[in-house]
Design a protein that fits this description.
The protein is of the alpha+beta class and 97 residues long. The chain has a single domain, classed as Alpha-Beta Plaits (2-Layer Sandwich), CATH 3.30.70. It contains 2 helices and 4 strands. A hairpin with a 6-residue loop joins strand 2 and strand 3. It starts with a strand and ends with a strand.
């Protein structure tokens, strides 16, 4: 079993309140969950208006498929034009029985 874990940092440049940030982050998270069936949540920078940090996880048995899934999620998020991805990091963890 392989776990793909990604850390995604977003910039929300036109935002000026925590309420606006929550709206953008909630929208992105729900769209990604619905479309890709991955686990995703806001994991840091909760008190910053224009920055959000998300954690994403997906489990499978093929590194290539998992990497492609994460790439498709990142591409989808960029195409929503709600926030800019300013950093992302992917780690693949192999778990043995």
């Amino acid at each position: 079993m392989i776990v793909a874990a990604a850390h995604i940092t977003l910039l929300i440049p036109d935002n000026n309140s925590l309420k606006g940030k929550r709206q953008v982050v909630r929208s992105l998270i729900e769209k990604v969950r619905h479309r890709f069936g991955v686990a995703i949540a806001e994991v840091d920078s909760h008190d910053l208006w224009q920055r959000a940090e998300l954690g994403l996880a997906v489990v499978g048995n093929d590194e290539k498929v998992l990497s492609q899934t994460v790439d498709r999620v990142l591409h989808f998020m960029e195409n929503q034009h709600l926030a800019e991805i300013i950093d992302s990091h992917l780690e693949l963890v192999h778990l043995e029985k």
